[in-house]
Amino acid sequence: MIFSHDVVIVGAGGSGLMAALYAKEGGADVAVISKLHPLRSHTGAAQGGIGAALGNEEEDHWLWHAFDTVKGSDYLGDQDAIEIMCQDAPRTIIELEHYGVPFSRNKEGKIAQRRFGGHTRNFGEAPVRRTCHAADRTGHAILHTLYDQCVKNQVRFYDEFQALDLIMTPDGVCCGVVAYELLTGEIHIFHAKMVCLATGGYGRVYKTTSNAHASTGDGMAIVLRSGLPLEDMEFVQFHPTGLYRLGILVTEGARGEGGILLNDKGERFMERYAPTVKDLAPRDLVSRAIYREIREGRGINGKDYVYLDLRHVGREVIETKLPEIATFSRTYLGIDPVKEPIPVAPTCHYAMGGIPTSYDGQVERAGRGSIVPGLYAVGECACVSVHGANRLGSNSLVDLVVFGRRAGIHMAETLRKEGRKKEPLPENPDRRVREMLEDILSRTQGEPVAVVRADLQQTMMDNVSVFRTEETLNTALEDLKQIRERAQRVVIRDKSKRFNTELMDAVELGFLVDLAEVITRSALNRTESRGAHSREDYPKRDDENWLKHTLIYREGEGEYRFDYKPVTITRFQPQERKY
Ligand SMILES: Cc1cc2nc3c(=O)[nH]c(=O)nc-3n(C[C@H](O)[C@H](O)[C@H](O)COP(=O)(O)OP(=O)(O)OC[C@H]3O[C@@H](n4cnc5c(N)ncnc54)[C@H](O)[C@@H]3O)c2cc1C
Fold first, then answer.
1. Closest ligand 1 atom to the C-alpha of 34?
2. What is the pLDDT of residue 368?
3. Of residues 218, 247, 239, 227, the one with CA closest to residue 283
4. At a CB cut-off of 8 Å and minimum separation 6, what does 442 contact?
5. Hey, is 566 helix, strand or coil?
6. How far apart are CA 240 and CA 343, in angstroms?
């Protein structure tokens, strides 16, 4: 079938819903397609909070927030974009509150704020309370409120429709997407004046991750396959505190409320690595510190984890401010954080890189100003770039709402200026998708998806995680070559039309392989250490050669091209990062 709308948004997490709401309020006819029910989107898992310099608990300023974000990004974030985000954040939070987000309150009845890693007062002096939260269910509260508002405003939802390709005219204008309907197995065309990708992250590239099964980076992979670039893919965030072996997240809010990290000797080891902010250092630093403790034999009982100790914080704070993580810890590990420390280890958490965009979400083809007409991207799948080489905790939710809102407004304004007329559809826009699905369905011999996926996740975990070297990265590339061939031959048992999730698993495996390869190649290409990209064979940051963004293009099977774009510096000159 062909569906027709002014604006088609792919993804119903915080960023997609924010873009949908503002585009709709601006007068556009808006459809949201989502492979999951919107309320199952990963934004619902966000725990600790959303950063904004409201100053409800103590003095705070947007410029302090901007400085922390720039320093946290290891000076790779674009400072003009960061200024937009930090200046816009307080107003956007108030708007969310007015839409109905049930934020926790302080004693004065204002939105409560807590400490988070890398957020400081007065340009690095000491931790500041900047992260607004709804207990430790902030994403859940935001997602539900935005969904209510979208339904109220009559945004059209297509639930359990999975986008598999972009539709581009011969002149390079985006005029729609091809989507697979899970219920019926039908392939549909969405014809649009504008398409906005909001498909979230790719955590499932790694074995241990805080991300949901659906976080397979679809939007990024689709863009790469369309000949467009991805930016800064070497920067993958590992969150320091995943539940040991499971990777399920224990929010940084736990340390914000006073939790501390301990090694086997009972030492609060972060005092050695970050004397000023200690356990509230940024994530790249804390994850590296944990691995160093483990490598030097100070993991708990000589094993590959440390403790997060909340016992001194007390039952009341744990039960009221951190109820979700208390439940996770009891349910999954049988550990009561009121009485025992929680075993934790780093877990793959967030994609700093993604689809390059302007400050209004327009996708860029080759650096600032080179817009792909009709195509937008927002949220974790996009790279505007406010997080640079390392994102600060609570800065993703604010990125979603600030830039989701800006993209929504921009799409509505563009429609008003240019009119509603769409580019005509090219011939056979769904050909590539039909051929891909027919090929998978026709195979009779090969391995199951899960076996190949597990090998992919293992090699990425072993060779492309917190620490990397040329040797480990080359090992990963060798492995990925074989894995790609095996992925192209996987066999599925379910050949039916209805809810064929196995078929979509096979498609997603292809996306994961593509992304694993660009992450690894980009990591091999950047011969320095910066933020979350830690090359043990190039341990220093190298501003002379590498203070620039990477753009990677796929030019054919196994063929890639790199290009670069400058980092925008406005107020804060790069300095050595100390905490
Ligand atoms: C456990 C956890 C806790 C976190 N806590 C915080 C926090 O406290 N503060 C903070 O700032 N950040 C936090 N983050 C990060 C933050 O939650 C995410 O970066 C953010 O929610 C991503 O939102 P999004 O809108 O980009 O995408 P998501 O919320 O991931 O939504 C993606 C959407 O895209 C849809 N989709 C994907 N592929 C397709 C396709 N092919 N076709 C159709 N639809 C598709 C999905 O159905 C979904 O609706 C946390 C992350 C995790 C994993």
1. 44
2. 83
3. 239
4. none
5. strand
6. 11
Quote the pLDDT of residue 556.
Answer: 85
Give the pLDDT of residue 324: 87
Confidence of residue 539 (pLDDT cuts 50, 70, 90): very high
Closest among 111, 536, 303, 277 to 290, alpha carbons compared? 303
- What local confidence, expressed as pLDDT, does residue 535 receive? 98
Provide the 10 A C-beta neighbour count for residue 445: 6
340: exposed, middle or buried (C-beta count within 10 Å: 0-12, 13-18, 19+)?
middle
By the 8 A CB rule, do 459 and 205 touch?
no
* For residue 253, pLDDT beyond 90: no
Most ligand 1 atoms within 8 A of CB, residue of 397, 398, 399, 401 to mutate: 397
Which three-class secondary structure state does DSSP give residue 452? Answer: helix
pLDDT at 103: 97
CATH 1.20.58.100, applies to 430-544: yes
Give CA–CA dist 496/477, Å, rounded: 35
Query: From ligand 1's centre to the CA of 201, what distance in Å?
Result: 6
Q: Is 116 helix (H, G, I), strand (E, B) or coil?
A: strand
Reading the block at residue 210, the tokens are 């805080």
CATH of domain 241-346: 3.90.700.10
Single-letter code of the amino acid located at 382 = A
Dump pLDDT digits (tens) for 383-427. Answer: 999 999 999 999 999 999 999 999 999 999 999 999 999 999 999
pLDDT grade for 554, boundaries at 50, 70 and 90: very high
Nearest to 255 by CA among 192, 181, 344: 344
CATH fold label, 1-235+352-427+545-578: FAD/NAD(P)-binding domain (3.50.50)
- Mark whether 283 is an active-site residue: yes
Assign 57 to helix, strand or coil.
coil
| Catalytic-labelled residue, pool 283, 468, 554, 577 | 283
CB 138 within 8 A of CB 50: yes
Start and end residues for every CATH 1.20.58.100 domain found in the chain: 430-544
Q: How far apart are CA 278 and CA 347, in angstroms?
A: 20
Tell me how far the alpha carbon of residue 14 lies from the centroid of ligand 1, in angstroms.
7
Q: Whose CA is nearest to atom 4 of ligand 1?
A: 46
| Predicted confidence (pLDDT) at residue 197 exceeds the cutoff of 90 | yes
pTM for the complete prediction?
A: 0.96
Angstrom distance (rounded) from CA 63 to CA 68:
9
Domain with CATH 3.50.50.60 in the chain: 1-235+352-427+545-578
pLDDT of 557 strictly over 90? no
What is the rounded CA–CA span in Å between residue 43 and residue 396? 10
Q: Residue 214 C-alpha to ligand 1 middle, in angstroms?
A: 9
Say how many Å lie between the first and final Cα of the chain, rounded.
56
**Number of the ligand 1 atom closest to the C-alpha atom of 212:** 53
